[in-house]
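Q: I have 410 residues here and want to know how they pack in 3D. Can you give me a structure?
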Amino acid sequence: MKALHIAFVGHVAGDDIQSLLAPGQAVASPGYAGAPLMGVLIGELLRQGHRVTAITSDSTLPLDGGPQYRHGAGFSYVATPARRRAWRPNGLRLGRAVDFFAFEIGQIARAVDACAPDIVHAHWSYEMALGAMRQDRPILVTCHDSPRQVLRYSRNLYRSVRYLMARRVFAKGREFSAVSRYLADELRPYLAEAPEVIPNPVADYVFAAGAGPRQLPGTRRIGLICNGWGRRKNAEPALAAFARWRRSEPRAELHVYGDDFGPGERAQRWSLGRCLAAGMHFHGRLPHRALVESLATMDALLHPALEETFGVVLAEAMALGLPVVAGRSSGAVPDVMAGDAQGRSPLGLLVDVSRVDDIVGGLDGVFDTQYAARSRAGIERAREHYSTASVVRSYVDRYHRILAKESPCP
C-alpha cells in the first residue's frame, strides 16, 4: 500500500514520543499524560513507513503564543495551547467549557491545516475531532468512550457539555471506528453507519515484560489499576472484598495504582478509615513502563469497573499472563476476555463486581487448578487480537478505503 501522511490528533503525551524525535529535539511540552496507546500507534505507523504529524493540546503553553513543534524522522509533534480551567476565566479568556472549547478547537484546526496531511485520524469524539473536522479533509474518528455512559456515571454540567460536543461530532462525521463491539453498539443510534471495530493495541514492551505462561504461584499478589475515585471505577467494593478475602488468605497483597490511589490519597484514606488497609500497597500514578514492570510481578489482576469501552489494562494483564477477575456486565469486559453468553471466560473469572461476596469468590477461584491454562490463553488472545502491528494494519487499511471513497477518480 502507498505510504501516507497522517495527522494524528488526540491526547498525546510528550514523554511517549520523545524516542521518535531527532537527537537534541527535547520534548517541547508535556502534552497529555495517561494515554500511552497514542505513542504506541504513532511509533508503529512510522515503523511501517508512513509519515505522521501528531497534534495535541497543552494547557502549560501560553495562550497568546503559537504551537510548539518538534521533529524526527518522518515525524512531527505539534502542541497547541489550551486553557487550564473549565469554568473560571483564564486571564482574559473564558473557561473552556463555557464556550464549548472554541479556542482549543480553533488551535487544532489551524494545526491540521498547516500540516496538509493525506488523512486525519482523530481520537476521542470531543474537541480533538471537532478541530480536525474544521478542515475539509478525509478524516477517521476513533471513539474511545461512550459519552452517554460517561454522563450517566458523572452527572454534572461539565460532562453535559462534553456529551453535547460528542453529539455534534456524531452528526458531522462520516467515518468512525470504535475500540470494541460494546462501544460500537453504544454509538450506533447516533451514527449514519455502524462504526468499524478496531481494538486498542498492547505495546510490544508489555509482551516483552511477561515471562510466558505462568504456573499456579505460592504467593497471592493482586494488582488493581484505577484512574480516579468514582462510581464507574467502583473501587470501594473491590477494596472491601480484598480485605475480607485476606482473612482467609493472610499472605495476600493488593497493589493499587492510578490517580487517587497513591500514599495518602483518597483510596488509602478510605481504607484506613475503615480498618481495611492491611496488606494493601498504594502506588498511585506511575509512568506506563514502570506500571507494566510492576504489574508483571503480580499473580492476578482485579478490575472492578462497572463499565469499560475497552479496558486496555485487561489486554495488558493478559499479555503478561495474569488471570483476571472482572465484571461480567461491565460493558466491553466480557468481549475483551472472550466471555460467553453464560459469563464464563477462559482467561479469568467474570463476576458481579457490584457485590463484595462475588469479588471474594472471584479472587478465591482464580487461583484454582485452571490458573496455568488461563495464563496461557490470555497470552495467546493478546498476541492474536491486540498486537500493535495488527491494530495499525487495520487502521491503515481503513485509511486507504476512506481515501478511495473520497477520490474523484474511479
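Q: Anything worth noting?
A: The first helix runs from residue 14 to 17. Residues 5-201+387-406 form a domain with the Rossmann fold fold (CATH 3.40.50.2000).
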